[in-house]
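Pasting as-is:
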Amino acid sequence: MDVGIKELRDSLSRHLADVRAGGTVTITDHGRAIARIVPVDRPSRLEQLIAEGRVTKAAGRKRPSPEPLPATGAVSDLVTEQRR
């Protein structure tokens, strides 16, 4: 169900009752969706995709960035040098 901000503010209890019953409320601002209220016990889209086996969690943490190389001079000079 799509609900404007003013309507949500004016009848919040009714919309939260819909969510408690398992519904989803999409909040709009000038006709554009900006947020969604969903029941807490419903899995997120990511959790659904993991359960379906369509995506997997990352195997480990991202590797750390390499140490920066020492350089002298302005960045523009280094870029010009790399373009030659």
